[in-house]
Structures
1.
Amino acid sequence: MAGRRSGRGFTLVELVTVMILIGILAVVALPQLNVAQDFGATSFRDRVAASLRYAQKSAVARRRMVCATVAADGLSLTLTVAASFGAGACANAMNGPDGANPAASAPGSVTLTPAVTLYFQPSGSVTSNAVGTTIANFTLTVTGETPITVTGATGYVN
């Protein structure tokens, strides 16, 4: 009975083989998890840009001022529209291009900065005030993504 081996435990070769397999999986799988998080930030950036383009086009088509507001916490972008042509404030909620309100909501730890309101005028320009006297360029940044620029004179969103 002294030469008989017990059936409990693992051999050193089995343990090393399992550790190598875990190492290979870690090298292959962990970068894929980061890519999934990057897709969330990219998707949010694209939704913000689409919502800003939609705001500019809606302002021109409706002949009313449309306001795009970045929340103070940087987690959402909401759109509002003026009640009539020449109204000095955006009082009515407006759905985004996909019908959602807010127009864009950030996933996870992604944020949109700075907290600002863009006033899309019926002429197509973008101003920093509701009166429409101060045409301004804006740069919005989504965490980890290229900035979104809005050209004040034309309302072009890039």
2.
Amino acid sequence: MDELKEQIAAVAARMVVEEGLEAGPAKRRALKEMGLSAHTALPNNALVEEQVALYIAEFCSDTQPAELQVLRRIALQWMERLAAFRPHLTGPVWHATATRMSDITLQLFCDDPKSAEIGLIDMGVRYEPHTVMGLQGEPVDALYVQVRCVELQAYVGLRLVVYDFDDLRGLPRSDALGRRPRGDLAAVRQLVHDPIP
């Protein structure tokens, strides 16, 4: 394995855990922090995630499991509120690499892409719209909500990525590491009620 890529991944992993950055921005910041060219070959996200798990095990093992369960409970509450939009949990909260700095990412699969936004308005939920890269690398709408969390004494970011219902049919069953890349409401309920030690 390329030693430089592993070093970049380790620096990026620290930023993911301590600052809540996504892997992409963390890798680019790692290059700057390490004084490397912007054209340096970057590690893939799987290597960054592997380094995140190692960083958590070394520096956050006393706090991370409880923080993860809090984030999963929040995710479940929002998935239940947004059940009409077929929510799926993905990202660090699903893959057990989240800390209090991590956003919760829910993918919504809607008959009408504007219906999720209308649903939030009807609930009186304030949100910020923005665009993110979608499942096929295309730009898709996302709604960002700040959720007050008493247990963490902080606000938690909730990112709702809005897809068309038809996008649900062609989703891959596993990611590059052989894991399920997302979980539906039933799967998240099980994670919350029967956490794996």
